[in-house]
Design a protein that fits this description.
The structure is a homodimer. By secondary structure, chain A is an alpha+beta fold. Chain A contains 9 helices and 4 strands, in the order E-H-E-H-H-E-E-H-H-H-H-H-H. In chain A, helix 1 (about 20-30) runs parallel beside helix 4 (about 70-80), helix 5 packs antiparallel against helix 6 (about 130-150) and helix 5 packs parallel to helix 7. At the A-B interface, strand 4, helix 4, helix 5 and helix 6 of A face strand 4, helix 3, helix 4 and helix 5 of B.
Chain lengths: ~220, ~220
């Protein structure tokens, strides 16, 4: 049974790999699981067929027989717990990897989402320019802490895990902001993630010309 | 072996149960697991002894022998996967419950964190009053979607799960804003969570006079 994922018909980034389906494609590619793809338009995302799968009208979703999941974190965890390759066999080490998934999504990503709102939802407001440095500083605080922890290590906890997959992709969304360049070890960490063969396969799969094709895994 | 959690020495909310250690206390109370408590001051949270446990200088942390976890989502999931009572036995139903944990933390909580920043980090800025309605509308959008999904159900997926625990606590943080009152079925859902005996035990445990005492579970 090949799982089906739902992705943007046209990603707002035009195929730069910043949308959250990239996390799921990357995880599936790491574990070698092929998948089918359903695309949704922005109009369809707000309609009942999609809302039945995704309460908040977002992407991605994941279907596997009767099971319907949403939230990139939940889907990547499900893939990681049902295949080998994304979580260490040792249960304590796996719990640490999962801690980093949550850190990416609940501590590092929120200020990045604030930056996106500042740019796209409030960019034309009179306070936009004056407020932007505050928003960027909140991200810098998180990146500085992550940078201190990471030091010169390749990955967060020894070998590559689902925690790195999630953290790399969350932080990658900052590339257009220039903030990554202020933290060379994080920039290297992201580049290390992007150079993985599974990342490359997932990136190719999400390009506009390939977006609706089945994924090779 | 009794786990140790780290919590605020003095919670910024003065003991209203809004801090993230409440999620962990509540989960431990639901499964009947006693625990010990370490308190940290605001100064100690930025020092190396704490940063070694919690990269981002936050609370809570969770220690169990050699295992050190942080992120309330990760800790609650660890508790839920190692005790009975917070996740259904059926694996698909458990995956759905975990989806709701991530939805609470990565879709519903980020706009609530933005509101906290708007109030506490930017409340004295010249744009604060004019901007606030935009921030509140972003929360309303998520609450409306959650309200549509929940309808007149007691819990998100049949019986109470770790997904409800996380969603109730995330949404509970909105009580001071008045936004909960706009969505009566969500207000009832939160009240239902707060009336659980385990929630009450956790709430008592986090009151200023009890905060550093061992938890009964």
């Amino acid at each position: 049974m090949v799982p089906i994922i739902t992705v943007f018909e046209r990603s707002p980034d035009g195929g730069k790999g910043l949308s959250r389906d990239m996390r799921v494609r990357w995880a599936l590619a790491e574990v070698g699981q092929p998948y089918d793809v359903r695309t949704v338009s922005f109009a369809a995302m707000k309609q009942s067929a999609h809302l039945k799968r995704q309460t908040f009208g977002q992407i991605p979703t994941y279907e596997e027989g009767d099971l319907v999941l949403f939230e990139s974190g939940s889907i990547v965890l499900h893939i990681a717990q049902n295949h080998s390759g994304l979580l260490p066999a040792d249960t304590n080490a796996a719990a640490r990897a999962i801690t980093w998934m949550f850190a990416a999504l609940n501590t590092v990503e929120p200020p990045i989402l604030e930056l996106q709102n500042a740019k796209f939802a409030e960019g034309d407001r009179p306070w936009a320019a004056e407020r932007m440095p505050l928003v960027r500083d909140r991200i810098r605080e998180r990146l500085a802490q992550l940078s201190d922890y990471l030091g010169d290590a390749d990955w967060l906890e020894g070998g590559f895990t689902a925690g790195d997959l999630m953290m790399v992709h969350v932080v990658l969304r900052l590339r257009p902001s220039g903030l990554l360049d202020e933290f060379p070890n994080i920039a290297s960490y992201v580049a290390r993630g992007e150079s993985r063969p599974a990342f490359r396969r997932a990136y190719e799969a999400q390009l506009p010309e390939n977006v609706s094709k089945p994924g090779r895994g």
